Amino acid sequence: MFFHNRQAGGGENDFIESHFSDSDYCLNFSKEDVYIKKTSYTSKKGIRKKGASFMDRSRLWYLSKIGFLENVPADAADEFSAHIRHQNVSRGEIIQDPQSVRPELTFVKTGTVRLYTIDEEGRQFSYSLLGPGSTYGCLSTFSLGTENMYIEAVEPALICTIPEASYHQLARKYPVLTERILEILSERLRERGEMMEQLALRSVKDRLLHLLKMLFNHYGTYNENTVFQPIALPLTQQELAYMIGSSREAVSQTLHRLSEEGLVRFPKRRTIELHQSLLQEVPLPSYVQHLYTY
């Protein structure tokens, strides 16, 4: 969801997402966009001030972080936000295991979570890394493929959930919410089909490059003026190995060779950048990319 300031130059009306107590803004919806508008209120001392209530400022930030609501009409998004619950999770915290699945949808606002399974021998396989703007969960009427999985926070994250009953109530009133689920489900199935083909037929190098490009197209922003493009997710060699069905040692060796070939680089810990030549053909069209952004 895009926010901007209508006044040229911005000044004191600039939007700073982490400083609402200083900014005192609230949402004002229009058909064309969402923008920030100064309002006024009366303080506890009876003094008329400019600003907005804490709830208004919080809702502005919450709505801006739920990628599922991208392109959803403002009235539907606003009503939707009244039904969600918010939760801060720590790095390494298990959000869900196969025995604690609840019928609800979850949205990642900040941070990254990992979806994975564990076999009888204790081996892990990661299905997805989901960053800001992503959606996961399952209801009685459909599933995004998470009902038998562990879900763990890879880094500190802020997530929100909506119960099944609330979602169905809103979906009957706003059919566009069902359309959003179908879009996400369709893309998730396509993505997993491609990964299964990679696992069955491709080398470790091919599988790793496919995964890195897929992650970039979900969470990266291409800058034509920059040779190396960062993937905006924290990545470890072990995590990559879990996702391509390989060993950490094989991933380490492959990354080293790719680095020597000038295709990847590692500017800091848990950060991978891809050479722009790998990204000349973007596999995801724009209508799919926006499902993973906010």
TrEMBL record:
Domain of life from the UniProt record: Bacteria
Q: Which UniProt keywords apply?
A: Activator, DNA-binding, Transcription, Transcription regulation
Record GO terms (molecular function): DNA binding; DNA-binding transcription factor activity
Query: Could you tell me which Pfam families the record lists for this protein?
Result: cNMP_binding, HTH_Crp_2
Gene Ontology cellular component terms for the protein in this record? cytosol
InterPro entries for the chain: cNMP-bd_dom, cNMP-bd_dom_sf, Env_Response_Regulators, HTH_CRP, RmlC-like_jellyroll, WH-like_DNA-bd_sf, WH_DNA-bd_sf
Q: Which PROSITE patterns does the annotation name? A: CNMP_BINDING_3, HTH_CRP_2
Where does the record place the Cyclic nucleotide-binding domain? Answer: 68-188
In its UniProt entry, what is this protein called?
Crp/Fnr family transcriptional regulator
Q: Which organism is it from?
A: Alkalicoccus urumqiensis (Bacillus urumqiensis)
